[in-house]
Amino acid sequence: MKKINIILKDDCILIKKFGLIFIFLLCCFLIFKYTESEVKATFTGVIEEINGQTAIVYVTEEDDKDNVVSGIIYVNLAKNPDVTFQVGDKVKVGYDGTIRDTAPIGITTLTIELVQ
Predict the structure, then answer these.
(1) d(CA 47, CA 59)
(2) Tens digit of pLDDT for each residue in 81-95?
(3) Which of 6, 10, 55, 115 is most buried, by CB atoms within 10 Å?
(4) What's the rounded Cα separation, in Å, for the pair 26 and 52?
(5) pLDDT band at 2; cut points 50, 70, 90
(6) Which residues make Cβ contacts (< 8 Å) with residue 69, sequence separation at least 6?
(7) What SS3 string covers the chain?
(8) For 14, how many CA atoms within 13 A lie in the half-sphere containing its CB?
(9) Are 63 and 79 a contacting pair, CB within 8 Å?
(10) Are strands 54-62 and 72-76 parallel, antiparallel or unpaired?
């Protein structure tokens, strides 16, 4: 009779461990899912100046009519480490739609690619 109790206790511990692991993995998934940003607005511009991994881009075309940006904008070039950007390059920039009221305008760059 005592062996049955030991097996039941071990099963309960095993079930609790799997439950905790499942809850942990579910939390990790939800954190990843809801912190992941998506591109909500884009614009095309020309790189005017490069300082390390940031660039100043002059907007030439707004791709989204809802999120109109114009002028000079700080852009994070590190979002596309496979490309070597140079002054004068035409780029298409994707961002989360939020514009920081700074001079030059600040955005959260999500994508950047060269445009021909």
Answers:
(1) 9
(2) 999 999 999 999 999
(3) 55
(4) 38
(5) low
(6) 41, 43, 59, 62, 99, 105, 107
(7) CHHHHHHHHHHHHHHHHHHHHHHHHHHHHHHHHHHCCCCCEEEEEEEEEEECCEEEEEEEEECCCCCCCCCEEEEEHHHCCCCCCCCCCEEEEEEEEEEECCCCEEEEEEEEEECC
(8) 6
(9) no
(10) antiparallel
Place of tokens 């607005």: 41
Which bin fits 13, alpha (ψ -120 to 50), beta or left (φ > 0)?
alpha
In this structure, are residues 40 and 78 in contact, taking their beta carbons and an 8 Å threshold?
A: no
Residues in the chain: 116
**64 φ/ψ angles, rounded to the nearest 5 degrees:** -115, 125
Span 18-40, pLDDT tens digits:
888 888 888 777 776 665 578 88
